[in-house]
Design a protein that fits this description.
The protein has about 300 residues and is α/β, with parallel strands linked by helices. The protein is about 25% helix and about 25% strand. It has eight helices and 15 strands. The strands form three sheets. A seven-stranded mixed beta sheet has the order 5-2-1-6-7-8-9. A hairpin with a 6-residue loop joins strand 12 and strand 13. Helix 1 packs parallel to helix 6 and helix 5 runs antiparallel to helix 7. The longest helix is centred in the middle third of the chain and has 25 residues. The protein is elongated. It starts with a strand and ends in a 9-residue tail after the last helix.
Length: about 300
């Protein structure tokens, strides 16, 4: 089958590799333009571009896929289908109409749940115990297209967003190959989503990582795991930002935000119970464990995080 692939993040690499392994012809790969990255702000290619170049594929990086010349370029490939995984731009109807089998999307949730840009992060942050992957044939809406196949899995009790994302990417790769094969054979009947059951997973903002110590410990723990690596979870200690990398619910009681007395552990009272901060980093310092933070800061009675 002749395909055009659209994708950008590391989550989109396993599906591309799976299509190649299945013997499909990838006429072209579309990904986001190179962006500045890191402290040096040097231009960096997307993970999908790096993968495509390793395989000798043609790569296109339009600033705006909506431009008429992009649609004409895509039309010239005469693809049987297109596959899109985390591309990062809304696809206009003029492009949706090009391939005979449509555009198949891999979405990291059990649609119609968690439509939007960050389904993996919000499913963990909201304390869900199960999630999965959906392939759908896209339409002009936000993740509203007809469902092709779904695969579900439990979310591990200590699983982080990067860990879950790696598992879902592999499952999504398998599901994408199966979906395209099923569409080509006429063996899959797309089914509409139940829009009344839809929930949203909006793009993450920096302030989503700020901890409210009146929350239950389980909620703080879930958000810390769900919002890795960005925006993470953070609070303020003595006027400086304290980034929280690892934590877990613990026994303890006190006024929310107060650091509880303990010889070794860094325990903070929450709205329900307490939470142990296992790995933290104070602004401008190195990442350390909770015991090292407690010893280095010479904590006072009723020191608190805000």
């Amino acid at each position: 089958m002749k395909l055009v692939y659209l994708g950008t993040p590391s989550f989109a690499v396993p599906p591309l590799e799976a299509l190649l392994a299945a013997g499909h012809e990838i006429a072209a790969v579309y990904t986001q333009p190179d962006r500045p990255k890191g402290r040096g702000r040097e231009m960096a290619a997307s993970p999908v571009k790096e993968c495509a170049l390793r395989h000798g594929l043609t790569v296109h990086q339009p600033e705006r896929v909506r431009r008429p010349e992009v649609a004409e370029q895509l039309r010239a490939f005469q693809p049987d289908a297109m596959a899109i995984v985390g591309y990062g731009q809304i696809i206009p109807q003029s492009i949706i109409d090009i391939p005979r089998l449509g555009i198949v999307n891999v979405h990291a949730s059990l649609l119609p749940l968690y439509r939007g840009a960050a389904p993996i992060q919000w499913s963990i942050a909201n304390g869900e115990t199960r999630t999965g992957v959906t392939t759908m044939r896209i339409d002009a809406g936000l993740d509203t297209g007809d469902i092709l196949l779904q695969w579900d899995t439990a979310i591990g009790p200590r699983e982080t967003a990067p860990e879950l994302g790696a598992r879902l990417a592999q499952a999504g790769a398998t599901l994408l190959v199966q979906s395209l094969d099923g569409l080509d054979r006429g063996a899959i009947v797309p089914r509409p989503q139940d829009h009344a059951c839809a929930t949203l997973a909006p793009i993450l903002k920096k302030e989503d990582g700020r901890v409210d110590w009146t929350w239950p410990a389980a909620r703080i723990d879930a958000r810390c795991r769900g919002f890795q690596p960005w925006p993470g979870a953070y609070a303020e200690f003595r006027g400086q930002v304290l980034q929280i990398f690892e934590c877990r619910p613990a026994e303890g009681r006190g006024e929310p935000g107060v650091i509880l007395p303990d010889r070794k552990r860094l325990l903070v009272a929450c709205g329900d119970g307490a939470i142990e901060l296992e790995q933290v980093q104070l602004q401008g310092r190195k990442r350390i464990n909770g015991e090292a933070f407690r010893n280095g800061q010479r904590l006072l009675d009723n020191d608190r995080l805000s």
